Every structure is written in structure tokens, then in C-alpha cells.
Amino acid sequence: MCMLILTCLLTLSLVTTIQPKRTLYSKKYGVDLIRYTHAANTVVYSSNKIDDTIRYLSLHDNKYIRYFPGHSKRVVALSMSPVDDTFISGSLDKTIRLWDLRSPNCQGLMHLQGKPVCSFDPEGLIFAAGVNSEMVKLYDLRSFDKGPFATFKMQYDRTCEWTGLKFSNDGKLILISTNGSFIRLIDAFKGVVMHTFGGYANSKAVTLEASFTPDSQFIMIGSEDGKIHVWNGESGIKVAVLDGKHTGPITCLQFNPKFMTFASACSNMAFWLPTIDD
Known about the structure:
It is found in: Nucleus. The chain is mainly beta.
């Protein structure tokens, strides 16, 4: 399995960039972070105009289903539960809020000491909060009001900030993205830094998204010069650099959760497929 996935990574081919099927505008509120929900053709998204309310939108008819007010500064993290209608948001107001799509009222509120990033684990029972670019706190969703059940202190780096946090699909690893020229892979149970991946371009401190492959074995991130860098998560060795012909920094890179395909995006989007023969 490991060799098959590695072969796929080394032989991924770029699919011709396609035109969007439909465009929906949010000119009044703007759009920043956007996440699909479990309901068909619906999303939640944060805004960058007017206020910091999170909006629940039906893509079918371009109508709002519900608003989630509460944050007083820009939302910098948004994560949908993988199992139900719960989602969490982190803001520059130094809070993390827990929501349910069925209610406009905040279901839980955590006050922190710095800027947060946050994400659910793959089973939807735990969420992790990265705080002030130096600590990872793990919370049990059923008793989050009692505080974190584990806290991992990282070495603080003044040259950059944490911009994202993701669990691997097997729940064993946490990937920390930064706006610097490195990302970190840590053990989700012990908090030990397993690898620090660098060697990609990001001189302008752009928020670049990193992702696990669906089998949790490889880590990928785009770069300022439009290339995609790939590492083996176990050995820490870089195994590939993919050229997607992007014209700017790759700020979004996400895998299909079940298949060996992914999308990368700067101002345009590209789709990738494996090219192995049966």
C-alpha cells in the first residue's frame, strides 16, 4: 500500500484547469473561510466585510438558512464536525465558539490567551486548538467546559504564526501549518514533534494550506512559486515536487478524503489524478 501510494504521488498528472459550473456572489459580506456541511449543497462561511458573523448558505438557491453571530473580530479558523451538524470557529477575538447548524446560538465558548486555530479529529469526539502559535490543547467535545485534557507546548518561533491545524485521517498525527517556510508534524497522543518540513518558498508570509494524503502517510503543501512539495510522514524525507503551472502562491490544497485525487488553487484551480497503469 505504501509503495502504491508513493507511485501515485510520483506519477500524478495535472488535469486541465476547468471553468466553474456556477458562481455565487457574496459582495455585501465578502467571503473568507468556507466549509461544506453534511447537508446537500450547503456551506458555512466566514465574512471579511460588514461584520464577523458566520453564514449558513444554500448553494441550490443562493439563500441564507441561518446566521451565527458572536465573534467580534475576524474568524481565522472554521472546522465542520465529520459526523454531525456541529462546527467550531476560532477568531482574532481570542475565542473558540462551538455551534450547531440547527441553532443560531453559540453552544459553547472558550476564552483563550491568544490567536487560535482549531480542528476536529476524524471521529468528531475531540477537537484541537492551537493557541498563540505555541500550544496545542486537546478538548473532549462532551466536556469541553472542563478545559483541555491535554496541553502540548511547542517551541515558539517569532518569525511566523500558526495558520492551520489538521488531524490525519487515522487520528494519530496533527499537522501544524505556518505562514513561514516550514510546517510541523506532531504525535496527536504525546505532542512530540516528529518532523519539521521546510525547503519551500514563502518569503511573503502567505497562508499556505498543507494536507495529509487520505492514507495519512504523506504530507503536501503548496508554495509561493506555484510548486507542490511532498514528504513521507514517517521518514520525513521529501519524495516529490510537483509543478502545477500555477501563476501565484498555492493557498489551498485539499485531497479527496477517499480517493487519490486532490485540488490545488492560487487564483485558478487545478485537479490532479494518478496515472498508474493497471
